[in-house]
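2024-03-11 09:14:02 INFO worker-7 job=invfold-0412 stage=load source=structure_tokens
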């Protein structure tokens, strides 16, 4: 079997840190094992533009593996070219880089390593809220620049305590975010999801479900997005929905960039409708140099807590998703296909559940 692995390159960092498993240099630690099973492994970071290495290699690939951090976009066109393709594996969580409808038409399985980095993302979400609300970035930049101007930072710096915080999506990450925020003594923790939390867990966290998204957004000082990218979340946070948010709210999105409309977010920061926006997900990835989220600032010259897509790829997470990919491949190579049910996104021409994004929680 031919397996194509699409990862970012570690470049010079490979020398510093052999634990960077999700890179072309370290290949999820899987080369020896894959070859020992009698399979061929081709690894590349070249995935975009015309005639990329991915385009050349996918033609006779049986399996494509990629991370969401440097996603090989498995489009309908690429699926049409990939005559042997049977399995797409996501080394991480979130398989929206695969055209799932096209995969189903060809009965290509799409699996991911569910849960592998949810704690990493939840930590990043809480960090991003703190960074935005406390106005950390301009404070730090000031120090590095040799300056000292407390008022310049304090005039846009607040506390998380006493704020209304809301999550769109309360799955593995959303739940962990709420659990981590509860000790900050927020005024309220709200959530919007088709699937309510288990009542016992809801009580433990002290969260309240709001049945209308708009109603929730109108009450929240801080909003975090923790739902997958699918048909009903693509472009969800556009000018109109952002206008329903409380004026001056902060928005944190570590789910997927395409859930928000790039320019509408940047405009909302400029106008003060949003006080700040932070997260690590973009579309496409890598983000273009002139992407408006790189440079957007509010009227205080603050309100931007963007990073490259790093939240789910801590070294601890890399070990977990590398192991998870190995388990999926083992199930596939053995012919048993005895995958963990929660890892299956689509299989045998159908979604594992009624719709992507409505999966069972754990
Ligand atoms: P999960 O499947 O455990 O939870 C997702 C929740 O979103 C479910 O409860 C589902 O009912 C809900 N949902 C779906 N559509 C919704 C909608 N329109 N409105 C409100 N709720 C909706 O998934 P998990 O593990 O919590 O991950 C969520 C997403 O976070 C992933 O799909 C992925 O896109 C993103 N992610 C980002 C990472 C990063 O490194 N930045 C790493 C891991 C995940």
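2024-03-11 09:14:09 INFO worker-7 stage=emit residues=362
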């Amino acid at each position: 079997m031919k397996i194509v692995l699409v990862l970012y390159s570690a470049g010079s960092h490979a020398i510093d840190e052999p634990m960077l498993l999700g890179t072309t240099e370290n290949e999820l630690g899987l080369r020896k094992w894959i070859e020992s099973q009698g399979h061929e492994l081709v690894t590349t970071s070249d995935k975009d533009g015309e005639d990329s290495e991915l385009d050349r290699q996918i033609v006779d690939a049986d399996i494509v593996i990629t991370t969401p951090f440097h996603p090989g976009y498995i489009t309908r066109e690429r699926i049409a070219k990939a005559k042997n393709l049977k399995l797409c594996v996501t080394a991480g969580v979130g398989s929206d880089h695969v055209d799932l409808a096209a995969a189903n038409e060809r009965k290509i399985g799409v699996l991911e390593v569910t849960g592998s980095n949810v704690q990493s993302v939840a930590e990043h979400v809480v960090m991003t809220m703190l960074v935005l609300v406390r106005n950390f970035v301009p404070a730090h930049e000031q120090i590095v620049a040799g300056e000292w101007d407390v008022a310049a930072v304090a005039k846009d710096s607040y506390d998380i305590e006493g704020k209304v915080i809301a999550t769109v999506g309360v799955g593995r990450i959303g739940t962990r975010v709420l659990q981590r925020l509860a000790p900050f003594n927020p005024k309220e923790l709200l959530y919007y999801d088709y699937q309510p939390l288990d009542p016992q867990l809801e009580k433990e966290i002290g969260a309240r479900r709001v049945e209308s998204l708009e109603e929730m957004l109108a009450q929240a000082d801080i909003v975090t997005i923790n739902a997958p990218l699918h048909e009903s979340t693509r472009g969800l946070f556009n000018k109109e929905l952002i206008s329903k948010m409380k004026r001056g709210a902060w928005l944190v999105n570590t789910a997927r960039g395409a859930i928000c409309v790039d320019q509408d977010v940047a405009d909302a920061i400029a106008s003060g409708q949003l006080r700040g926006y932070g997260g690590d997900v973009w579309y496409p990835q890598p983000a273009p140099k002139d992407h408006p989220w790189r440079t957007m600032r509010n009227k205080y010259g603050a309100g931007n807590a963007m990073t490259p897509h790093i939240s789910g790829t801590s070294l601890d997470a890399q070990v977990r998703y590398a192991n998870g990919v190995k388990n999926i491949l083992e199930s596939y190579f053995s012919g048993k296909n005895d995958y963990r049910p929660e890892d299956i996104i689509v299989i045998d021409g159908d979604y594992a559940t009624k719709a992507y994004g409505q999966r069972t929680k754990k």
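2024-03-11 09:14:09 INFO worker-7 stage=report msg="DSSP finds 15 helices and 14 strands in the chain."
2024-03-11 09:14:10 INFO worker-7 job finished
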